[in-house]
Amino acid sequence: MTETQFTPRVFSGAQPSGNLHLGNYLGALRNWVGMQGADYETIYCMVDLHAITVWQDPSELRKATRELCAGYIASGLDPDKSILFNQSQVPEHAQLAWIFNCVARMGWMQRMTQFKDKAGKNAQNASLGLFAYPALMAADILIYHATHVPVGDDQKQHLELTRDIATKFNHDFGVDFFPLTEPVIQGVAARVMSLRDGSKKMSKSDPSDMSRINMTDDADTISKKIRKAKTDPEALPSETDGLEDRPEARNLVNIYAALSDQSAEQVLAEVGGKQFGEFKPMLADLAVSKLSPISTEMARLMGEEAEIDRILARGAEKARAIATPILQQTYEIVGMVGAKQV
Ligand code: ATP
Ligand code: MG
């Protein structure tokens, strides 16, 4: 079989499951913006079908989806350069996900740590959707034959599963149809940790609002959250070795590094020896200066709901133009009568 050359194409997404936070921005969104406008297509989705794998109040979900779109645009994604849309409006995602539910093996899914983390102790009571989540994620990516997926470090395992699904599909049907997608996990902030617990990642779904810096937080709230962030009593070290076994200290240094476009080594060369009482206000000032232009723009866009809805509708149309033929070709390969060659 000859190796198919797939056109470089970028896909990624975030869930409208709460407030966009600093981890989403530094681990994902900022990199999405960086990949926009180069030589390839960039497709960025608001994954509402993923959000409902845990309970979402319908009116909150509607608001969170529009707010997420505002967050994408305020962070620098341009609807004229990237395809921006919400997942439910391109039904091919869910249709391909069904095929992938029949390709993925139970054993593969049972190894997924995100399911274990989110289902917690009461896994029997989790939704079937939460368990099947990674197969839908594989479909999100492969319905566009995306070759590169910029994500935070927590999504690495799901990207490996996406490759396993593509490999098994190609093998089972004797085709070279789905690409083996590359994860793009970049920078010191690929895993921003909770401000309350350095062993847990910062998350939208964390019940404690003090655990994260939301993109919509005002300057006082950001300062307060950083001031109250868990730390240890030691001064900052001058080298990164000194951050070992100090997860909270490392997290704050990494956030500072990412926000100031430096390495952790460069930051420590500057702040080594300082106490947190001195470092935290520096970090708060930096975070406010980087985030406030974004939150101001988000608030402005949220006042233009009709415009957001127009952007999403236009994005869904463009996305479907790519997804429809790929789904029909998949149906044809699988042997479904009536699959159309489009
Ligand atoms: P939820 O808690 O509902 O899963 P989340 O905070 O994990 O929300 P997602 O919408 O699941 O956010 O993820 C969107 C993108 O942000 C993904 O690429 C993910 O890898 C990235 N991301 C999420 N949390 C972090 C984090 N703490 N640090 C770096 N990247 C992150
Ligand atoms: Mg998540």
UniProtKB/TrEMBL annotation:
It comes from the Bacteria. Its main location: cytoplasm. Its EC number is 6.1.1.2. This is Tryptophan--tRNA ligase. InterPro entries: aa-tRNA-synth_I_CS (IPR001412), aa-tRNA-synth_Ic (IPR002305), Rossmann-like_a/b/a_fold (IPR014729), Trp-tRNA-ligase (IPR002306), Trp-tRNA-ligase_bac-type (IPR024109), Trp-tRNA_synthetase (IPR050203). Homodimer. The keyword Chloroplast does not apply. SUPFAM superfamilies: Nucleotidylyl transferase (SSF52374). One of its GO terms (molecular function) is tryptophan-tRNA ligase activity. L-tryptophan binds at residue 140. A motif ('HIGH' region) lies at residues 16-24. It is found in: Cytoplasm. It catalyses: tRNA(Trp) + L-tryptophan + ATP = L-tryptophyl-tRNA(Trp) + AMP + diphosphate + H(+). It comes from Ruegeria haliotis.
